[in-house]
């Protein structure tokens, strides 16, 4: 009977070795994910492929696209404004990623101790993360105001000069990075806290028994076991920094000119103000390629310094 049952089960298997019940479950699975996959294909995949085709055209939105081939991509290499936007984006990204890791880890270490009002401090530091970027940029633009802003008023009381923070590209980079840190450190802090609390306490107890001090425990236990968390946050921080737009659009734009254009802002300006949408899409694809290169590079290098317990 066992052999007969086995033969009957084999007969009920389909082409791919699935039983009738498994095939039925697979069909239901495909049916349930079909709406999401159709939506992804129509609104994401199709739009992505269409934008790739449009990047090879000259299109002013109002008329039909005209095929230009790789001319838009060749233009990128001789576009001084694109190079300026790329440089500004790099100047914002590098310090933002570095200090974001340092400050968020420091806050996580402080709030992982038994200090009073620990939950209150966590909420306070996380509040900027859930605040709308437009509101953040508007408030900080007032804070940086050279004539009426409280920051310059405080500097004047101390006898320091009152710089035009957002009008000068050099100080505008500092101003924007400060706001990015203020609004983004809270998220990284929460992730670092989760990473710290996942480290077994037995490791610290064993190290303390062996006579390891606070710095050695941090260097030999905390940092190595936090490398997966650090790697994840670095990838997210670099991607978000390369795409910064809201703060730059509101804070450093005066009239028709922007004192600190970034790549995404230049894409917006070319596409929606100058109506050179084909070229704007080309820059967007160049930014996508840049993000992809940085991400793949990080995944390549993480084998050398990321340690999974």
DSSP E strands, number: 4
Main sheet specs: 2 strands, antiparallel
Reading side by side through the largest sheet, how are the strands ordered?
1-2
How large is the share of residues in beta strands? Answer: under 5%
Please compute the radius of gyration using only Cα atoms: 27 Å
CATH class of the largest domain: Mainly Alpha
Q: In whole angstroms, how far apart are the ends?
A: 49 Å
CATH superfamily of the largest domain: MetI-like
Low-confidence stretches: none
Mind explaining what this structure looks like?
The chain is mainly α and 309 residues long. It has two domains: 2-54, no CATH class; 72-305, MetI-like fold, CATH 1.10.3720.10. 72% of the residues lie in helices and 3% in strands. It contains 14 helices and four strands. The strands form two sheets. Strands 1-2 form a two-stranded antiparallel sheet. Strands 3-4 form a two-stranded antiparallel sheet. A hairpin with a 2-residue loop joins strand 3 (253-254) and strand 4. Helix 13 (263-273) runs antiparallel to helix 14 (277-305). The longest helix is centred in the N-terminal third of the chain and has 35 residues, at 20-54. 23% of the residues are buried.
Give the SSE layout.
Blueprint: H1 2-11, H2 20-54, E1 57-58, E2 66-67, H3 71-76, H4 80-111, H5 118-126, H6 133-143, H7 150-157, H8 169-197, H9 201-209, H10 214-225, H11 227-242, H12 246-251, E3 253-254, E4 257-258, H13 263-273, H14 277-305
Antiparallel strand pairs: 1-2, 3-4
Helix pairs in contact: 4-8, 4-11, 4-13, 11-14, 13-14
């Amino acid at each position: 009977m066992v052999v007969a049952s086995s033969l009957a089960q084999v007969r009920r298997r389909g082409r791919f070795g699935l039983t009738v019940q498994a095939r039925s479950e697979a069909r239901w699975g495909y049916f349930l994910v079909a709406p999401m996959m159709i939506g992804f294909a129509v609104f994401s995949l199709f739009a992505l492929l269409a934008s790739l085709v449009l990047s090879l055209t000259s299109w002013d939105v109002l008329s039909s696209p005209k095929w230009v081939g790789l001319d838009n991509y060749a233009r990128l290499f001789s576009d001084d404004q694109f190079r300026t936007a790329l440089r500004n984006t790099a100047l914002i990204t590098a310090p933002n990623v570095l200090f974001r890791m340092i400050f968020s880890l420091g806050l996580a270490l402080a709030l992982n101790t038994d200090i009073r009002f620990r939950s209150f401090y966590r909420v306070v530091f996380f509040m900027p993360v859930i605040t709308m970027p437009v509101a953040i940029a508007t408030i900080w633009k007032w804070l940086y105001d050279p004539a009426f802003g409280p920051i310059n008023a405080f500097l004047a009381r101390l006898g320091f000069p009152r710089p035009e923070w957002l009008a000068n590209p050099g100080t505008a980079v500092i101003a924007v990075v400060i706001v990015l840190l203020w609004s983004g450190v809270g998220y990284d802090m929460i992730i670092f806290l989760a990473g710290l609390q996942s480290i077994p306490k037995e490791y610290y107890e064993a190290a303390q028994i062996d006579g390891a001090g606070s710095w050695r425990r941090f260097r030999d236990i905390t940092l190595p076991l936090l490398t997966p968390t650090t790697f994840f946050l670095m990838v997210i921080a670099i991607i978000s920094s390369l795409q910064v737009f809201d703060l730059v659009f509101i804070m450093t734009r005066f009239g028709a000119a922007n004192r600190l254009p970034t790549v995404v802002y230049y894409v917006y300006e070319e596409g929606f103000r100058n109506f050179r949408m084909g070229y704007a899409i080309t820059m967007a694809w160049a930014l996508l390629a840049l993000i992809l290169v940085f991400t793949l590079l990080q995944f390549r290098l993480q084998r050398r310094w990321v340690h999974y317990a």
